[in-house]
Automatic annotation (TrEMBL):
<feature type="domain" description="ATP synthase F1 complex delta/epsilon subunit N-terminal">
    <location>
        <begin position="4"/>
        <end position="83"/>
    </location>
</feature>
<comment type="subunit">
    <text>F-type ATPases have 2 components, CF(1) - the catalytic core - and CF(0) - the membrane proton channel. CF(1) has five subunits: alpha(3), beta(3), gamma(1), delta(1), epsilon(1). CF(0) has three main subunits: a, b and c.</text>
</comment>
<keyword id="KW-0375">Hydrogen ion transport</keyword>
<dbReference type="GO" id="GO:0005524">
    <property type="term" value="F:ATP binding"/>
</dbReference>
<dbReference type="InterPro" id="IPR020546">
    <property type="entry name" value="ATP_synth_F1_dsu/esu_N"/>
</dbReference>
<dbReference type="InterPro" id="IPR036771">
    <property type="entry name" value="ATPsynth_dsu/esu_N"/>
</dbReference>
<keyword id="KW-0066">ATP synthesis</keyword>
<keyword id="KW-0406">Ion transport</keyword>
<dbReference type="Pfam" id="PF02823">
    <property type="entry name" value="ATP-synt_DE_N"/>
</dbReference>
<keyword id="KW-0813">Transport</keyword>
<comment type="function">
    <text>Produces ATP from ADP in the presence of a proton gradient across the membrane.</text>
</comment>
<protein>
    <recommendedName>
        <fullName>ATP synthase epsilon chain</fullName>
    </recommendedName>
</protein>
<dbReference type="GO" id="GO:0045259">
    <property type="term" value="C:proton-transporting ATP synthase complex"/>
</dbReference>
<dbReference type="GO" id="GO:0046933">
    <property type="term" value="F:proton-transporting ATP synthase activity, rotational mechanism"/>
</dbReference>
<keyword id="KW-0472">Membrane</keyword>
<keyword id="KW-1003">Cell membrane</keyword>
<comment type="similarity">
    <text>Belongs to the ATPase epsilon chain family.</text>
</comment>
C-alpha cells in the first residue's frame, strides 16, 4: 500500500514523524481521513482523537486539543496546540482538562465561545469513555 509522510508536532516535542498509510483527524468541520494522494487542504482541528495507521492492524492514537493540519498529496503536518499520546493519558489528566474547560465556559458570556467549549468538553468526556478509564 502507498504511504505518505506524517509529522505531528506538539508544543513541547515532535510526537510522531514517519511514513503512514492513513491518519484520521478531528477537523473543525468534521472528522476526516487523510490518505496518500489527498488534495491540498489547510484545516483547523478541534479537540478529539487523532488516529495514525502505520500499516494494516498497526496504529497509534493521540488526543489533540486544537491546532492546524496542512495536507498535500505526499505529506501531512499537524501542529497541535496540545497533544498527548493515549499511553500517557490518565483519568486525572482528562478530568483536569474537563475542569479547566468548564471554568472557561463559566467565565465567558460569548454564545459562540460557549458552544465551542461545550464541544471540547464533550470530546474530552468521549475520550475518557473510549479509553475505558
Amino acid at each position: 500500500m502507498a504511504t505518505f509522510q506524517f509529522d505531528l508536532v506538539g508544543p513541547e516535542r515532535i510526537l510522531y514523524s514517519g511514513a503512514v498509510d492513513a491518519v484520521q483527524l478531528p477537523g473543525s468541520e468534521g472528522e476526516m481521513t487523510v490518505l496518500p494522494g489527498h488534495a491540498p487542504v489547510l484545516t483547523t482541528l478541534k479537540t478529539g482523537m487523532l488516529v495514525i495507521t502505520e500499516s494494516p492492524q498497526v496504529g497509534k492514537r493521540v488526543l489533540v486539543r486544537g491546532g492546524f493540519a496542512e495536507i498535500n498529496a505526499t505529506s501531512l503536518t499537524v501542529i497541535a496546540e496540545r497533544a498527548t499520546p493515549v499511553e500517557e493519558l490518565t483519568p486525572a489528566i482528562i478530568d483536569a482538562d474537563i475542569a479547566a474547560a468548564e471554568l472557561l465556559y463559566d467565565a465567558t458570556d460569548d454564545y459562540d465561545r460557549k458552544i465551542e467549549i461545550e464541544g471540547q468538553i464533550a470530546q474530552l468526556r468521549e475520550a475518557k469513555v473510549a479509553l475505558s478509564f
